[in-house]
Design a protein that fits this description.
This protein is mainly beta and 396 residues long. 14% of the residues lie in helices and 36% in strands. It is built from 7 helices and 22 strands. Strands 3, 6, 7, 10, 14, 16, 19, 20 and 22 form a 9-stranded mixed sheet that branches. Strands 1, 2, 4, 8, 9 and 13 form a 6-stranded antiparallel sheet that branches.
Length: 396
C-alpha cells in the first residue's frame, strides 16, 4: 500500500523572529511624525537651575525620541575678563535630563554632555570645524550656513550674546531599531520629560570648567526658552482584538542613559573600579577624568592615565587599553577626538553583558591624581522591566 507523505508544517517563529517581523511591518506601514510640544519660557529660577522644567509628551503613537532646542542670552557679568567657550560648551546647558515612562520608571537620568556626546558617537557627527563655511566644494557653498547651533565665544565683560543649542534624547536605540520604544497611546498612563538647567554655566578665571558652558569669567544666562519636538510612529496597526500591534521584545526592553560621579579617592598608580550595574547589556561608556580640579588644567590628552581594564569579578581582564588606544578607537568610530579628558568606550559590537558575566568593572589606573580628582561616567545600556526589579542600581 503506498505511503502518504506527512503534511508540511510551517516551523514556529521564535520570539526574535516574531519581533523583527512586527518591527519591519511598523517601519513600513506607520507614519513617522514629529510634532512640537508647548514652548517653555523659563523663569529666573528655572534658568538658574533652581527648579526643573516639566514637559508632558502627547499621548499618541510609539515614542522614538525628543528633539530639544534651547535658546537664550549669555551674560558676561565679570568686571574685567573675556568669556570663552569651555571645552564641552553648550552641551553643558542641561544640568540634568530625566525621562519617566508610562509606568513611572526612570529610563533616562543623565546630563547634557552625555546625550550630546552620545549623539556624536552614534551619528558620527564630528567636530564643528568640519562644517565651517570655508570648507567649500566646487559645485557650491557648503558648510555652516544655518544657525542650528550658535555658541558665542570671546565676548567681553559687561556684554551679552545670544545662544542656541539642539539636543537629541533617544528613547528607542535608533530610528530603525525600536528596542526601548514606549507606546504612549493611552490616556491614563502619562510619561514625563524633565529638564534642569545647569546652575553654573560660567566658570570664573582659573576655575574648573569641566561642567561649564563658558570659562574665564563670571556670568549667567537669561531669556531662556526650551522647545521640544516629539518624534513617534503613528497609525499603529491593530490586532483583531483592537490592541496595538507592537514588537513584544522591543516593548519589553528598557533603553537607559544614566550618569554617575565616581565617589572613590583616586590615587596615582592604583586601580580604581567603576562598577557596571547587574542584569544589563552595556552599549557604551563615556568617562571624563579630571586629575586636578583645583584649577582648569586637570583634563589632558591621555598623559595622566596608565591604562583602562575591563575586569570580571574573578579578576579576569577582558581587555587592557592605554588612553591613546582608546582615543584611536574613538577617532575611527566618530571621525573626531572628544575634548581633553573624555574617553569613549564603545561596546556596540560586543556589549558588556552583566546577565552573563555578573559583576563587571571598568578599571581606571591614573598616573596623576591630586586631591579631589574625579571621574564623570555616562552609561548606555539595555535591560528589561522584569530584570530591573531585581538588579542593583548603577554605582555612583
Amino acid at each position: 500500500m503506498p505511503t502518504t507523505a506527512a503534511p508540511m508544517v510551517a516551523p514556529k517563529m521564535t520570539p526574535s523572529q516574531q519581533n523583527h517581523m512586527i518591527r519591519d511591518l511598523l517601519l513600513k506601514k506607520t507614519i513617522n511624525r514629529m510634532i512640537p510640544l508647548a514652548v517653555a519660557n523659563l523663569s529666573a529660577s528655572q534658568a538658574a537651575g533652581g527648579a526643573p522644567v516639566n514637559i508632558q509628551p502627547q499621548a499618541v503613537g510609539l515614542l522614538k525620541k525628543f528633539i530639544i532646542e534651547i535658546t537664550g542670552t549669555a551674560n558676561n557679568t565679570d568686571a574685567a575678563n573675556v568669556a570663552d567657550l569651555a571645552d564641552f560648551g553648550l552641551a553643558n546647558l542641561i544640568g540634568q535630563i530625566v525621562f519617566n515612562d508610562t509606568q513611572s520608571y526612570t529610563r533616562h537620568q543623565t546630563t547634557g554632555w552625555h546625550i550630546d556626546s552620545l549623539f556624536r558617537a552614534k551619528h558620527q557627527w564630528g567636530a564643528t570645524t568640519g562644517l565651517l563655511s570655508t570648507a567649500l566644494v566646487d559645485s557650491g557653498v557648503f558648510g555652516n550656513n544655518f544657525e542650528v547651533v550658535v555658541a558665542p565665544t570671546g565676548f567681553a565683560h559687561g556684554t551679552s550674546q545670544n545662544f542656541q543649542m539642539v539636543f537629541e534624547l533617544p528613547i528607542t536605540y535608533s530610528d530603525e531599531d525600536l528596542s526601548g520604544g514606549v507606546y504612549l497611546g493611552t490616556l491614563n498612563s502619562p510619561s514625563q520629560l524633565q529638564i534642569t538647567m545647569n546652575p553654573n554655566p560660567f566658570a570664573a578665571a582659573g576655575a574648573d570648567s569641566t561642567l561649564s558652558c563658558w570659562k574665564g569669567a563670571a556670568g549667567n544666562i537669561s531669556n531662556v526658552s526650551i522647545k521640544v519636538y516629539q518624534v513617534f510612529l503613528d497609525q499603529i496597526p491593530r490586532t483583531k482584538s483592537g490592541a496595538p500591534l507592537l514588537p513584544p521584545l522591543d516593548m519589553s526592553t528598557v533603553y537607559e542613559l544614566k550618569n554617575t560621579t565616581n565617589q572613590q579617592a583616586f590615587q596615582a598608580g592604583q586601580d580604581i573600579p567603576l562598577s557596571y550595574g547587574n542584569l544589563r547589556r552595556f552599549m557604551s561608556t563615556f568617562l571624563i577624568y579630571n586629575h586636578d580640579p583645583s584649577a582648569d588644567a586637570g583634563r589632558v590628552g591621555g598623559t595622566d592615565i596608565n591604562d583602562f581594564k575591563l575586569q570580571a569579578a574573578n579578576f579576569t581582564n577582558f581587555w587592557i587599553k592605554g588612553p591613546l588606544e582608546v582615543a584611536h578607537e574613538s577617532r575611527v568610530l566618530t571621525k573626531t577626538d572628544f575634548p581633553n579628558g573624555m574617553y569613549y568606550h564603545s561596546h556596540r559590537k560586543a556589549p558588556i553583558n552583566t546577565f552573563t558575566y555578573g559583576n563587571m568593572q571598568l578599571i581606571t589606573n591614573p598616573i596623576t591624581a591630586a586631591a579631589g580628582a574625579y571621574a564623570l561616567i555616562g552609561w548606555e545600556d539595555f535591560s528589561t522591566v522584569n530584570a530591573l526589579l531585581q538588579a542593583g542600581s548603577l554605582a555612583g
